[in-house]
Amino acid sequence: MRSLLFILSIGLSTIVSAQYSNLENFSQQGRGGELFASMRKKRDVSNDLPTVGSIYINDEFQPCEVYYKEDVVGNFYYRHNAFNDEIEIKETEYADEEESSLATVKELRVINKVDGRELSLSTYKNREETIKNGYLYTLVEGDKYSLYYRNRVRFKEGVKAVNSMVRSTSNKFTHYTDFYIVNGDEPLANYFSGKSKDIEPFISDDLEKAKAYMRDNKLSYKKTDDLAQLFEYLNS
To answer: Are residues 76 and 186 in the same domain?
Structure first.
């Protein structure tokens, strides 16, 4: 309900970005509460087996700046729950402060003040060609091409040993990185597998140029830094 009220307020006001200068209207614990949703959706692992891995990209809260469009909302602390694709956010880094969930509004951007990573809610078509909304991290943004990646976490429940001849297996969270490409100013980010043959539809006008650049610089389509280098080149 809170996030719905906020979305409605966005549509009704053309000066909303200037109004959200601090946490007063930015936290469900604050006096406004319109920019957060109470979306506690952590995985409840009910068995007593050990768990390997984490649902978070960064387990500890890290300092960030939150933007609404191009305007700074304020400085906060966040961590990305990639299993639920949820941004948990607080006003301070103190452990006793209860976190809230960032409202799912596309104009909001989070920039990590430690490493500069930027993420925002985007519309994308995944590997199953299903259109979804979720948080993508920015690698390259340009007039011709933009490149993003998504952190995806898969959960596999452990299995208890039924007898002494079989070993128990732990619960496990496994992290994956998926690449997404946007052509020009199109509103949809498309999944890219990291295979050279699958990039052709996205860069058809620059395909030979890209092949030569990748070959001459001995780059790989599967490596994040190499792929970012290619798209910086194609945008130049």
So the answer is: yes
CA–CA dist 150, 195 (Å, integer): 17
What span, in angstroms and rounded, lies between the C-alpha atoms of 22 and 8? 20
Q: How confident is the model at residue 49 (pLDDT cuts 50, 70, 90)?
A: confident
d(CA 14, CA 1): 21
pLDDT score for 13? 41
Q: Give the pLDDT band (50/70/90) at residue 164.
A: confident
Q: Are 135 and 14 in contact (CB under 8 A)?
A: no
Residues 147 and 211 in one domain: no
Q: Is 186 exposed, middle or buried (0-12, 13-18, 19+ CB in 10 A)?
A: exposed
Instruction: Please say whether the beta carbons of 45 and 54 come within 8 A.
Output: no
Predicted structure pTM score: 0.79
- pLDDT at residue 37 tops 90: no
Q: Which domain holds residue 163?
A: 44-192
* Percent with pLDDT over 90 in the chain: 64
Q: Is the domain of 201 the same as that of 164?
A: no
pLDDT tens-digit profile of 207-224? 999 999 999 999 999 999
Q: For the residues 45-71, what does the mean pLDDT come to?
A: 89
